[in-house]
Amino acid sequence: MRILGIETSCDETAVAIFEGDRASGKGRVLSERIASQIETHARFGGVVPEVASREHLIALPMMVEGVMKEADCGWSDIDHIAVTSGPGLMGALLVGVSYARALGCVNNIPVIPVHHMEGHLLAPGLSEGGLPDFSFITLLVSGGHTMLVRVDAIGEYRVIGQTIDDAAGECFDKSARLLGLSYPGGPEISKLAEHGDAKRFKLPRPLLNQDNLNFSFSGLKTAVMYAVKNHGKFDEQAKADMAAAIETAICDVLVKKSIRACRQESVNRLVIAGGVAANQGLRSMLAKAASDNGMESFLSHPKYCTDNAAMIAYAASLQLSSKVSSPMNWDVQPRCNLPS
Ligand code: KG4
Ligand code: ZN
Questions:
Q1: Residue 56: which H helix or E strand, with range?
Q2: Which domain holds residue 101?
Q3: Domain count, the chain
Q4: Which residues have CB less than 5 Å away from ligand 2 (the ion)?
Q5: Are 196 and 181 spatial neighbours (Cβ–Cβ below 8 Å)?
Q6: Looking at residue 183, what is its pLDDT?
Q7: CATH number (domain holding residue 96)
Q8: Could you report the per-residue pLDDT of 257-271, keeping only the tens digit for each?
C-alpha cells in the first residue's frame, strides 16, 4: 500500500510517499521533501504562527506534485493520505489537514489523522534494522515535549515520565537565545559545544536526585541566565564553554532518567526520538550508558529525528497493519495526549 504523508504542525512543510507491506506495515520511503521555514522565522527569534500557516499554504501544492512525480505515482496508486492532526500550531495544522482532506475528497482516498508525537515515537523504525521488539522505552525529546514512554505495541503507549515545565528542546532554544545564538538553538549549541569545556561553568541537574521519572528544565534555563549575567562579556571561548555546559547538563539528566526508566520497567531496550535526538552528544552519551548497563540502544537516523512526513506516513502504515482504527470524526487538535 502507498501512503502520502503530510506534516505541517510547526515550521517545516513536509511531504513523503511511503510504501508499506499490508501485513507488517514495514516498507520504504519512495520520495520525500522538506521545506524548512527556519530562515523566515529566525529574524523573529522563534516561530510566528500566522507566517508559518501562510508558508505551508504556498509550499504544499508544489511539494506534493514533486513527491508524486519522483515516486512515479498517479492518484490511483495512493491508498491512504496520512496527515498530522495535532499537537501543533492551530493554523499550521489546519492548512495540512484541509489540504489532505481536499486531496482525499477529490481522489476518493481515505485520510488518516496521525498524532505528531506518535510519528516521532515510531520514526526510529525508518532506520535500518527497524523498530526493536516490544516492549521498549523511548526517550521522546522535541521542541515542545520531553517524555519517557513505555511502548508495548503499536497504539499501546504509556507515558511514565515527563517534564513538569519546559521541554528539553525549549531549554536548548531559550538558553541559546541568552547566548545570542540564532533560532533554533539546539543545533547552534551543539556546534559550539564541540570546542567547549563543559566543566568551566557549573549548572544544575534538576530533579536528577528525585526518585521519579519527571524532568524540569526551566530552572536550568534560569541558571544559564544568571551565569551569563554574572560572567559579563562573553568571548567566543566562553560561549563555547557555556554551550558545552548546557548540552552536558541537559543530556546528563535525560540519559540518567532514561536508564532509571528501563530499570524500573524491567525493559532493556532503549530508543531515542524527536528533534533533540539529533544531538550528537546525547546520542553518544545514551549509547554508552545503555551499553554500560547491559541495555540495547536504538537511535533514529538524524534526518528522521526532526520533523518530517515519512514518520507520519510510516505511523499510519503501522496502524493499518496492526488494525489500530482511527476515529470516524476527527479534527485538528493543537493540544492532545499521546494515544494509549
Ligand atoms: O521534533 P522537532 O523537530 O519539532 C517539534 O516537534 O518540536 O524538535 C525541534 C527541537 C528544537 O528545540 C531544536 O532546537 C531541537 O529539536 N534540536 C536539537 C538539535 N536539532 C534539533 N537540539 C539539540 N541538538 C540538536 N542537534
Ligand atoms: Zn516534532
A1: helix 49-70
A2: 2-122+305-321
A3: 2
A4: 142, 307
A5: no
A6: 85
A7: 3.30.420.40
A8: 999 999 999 999 999
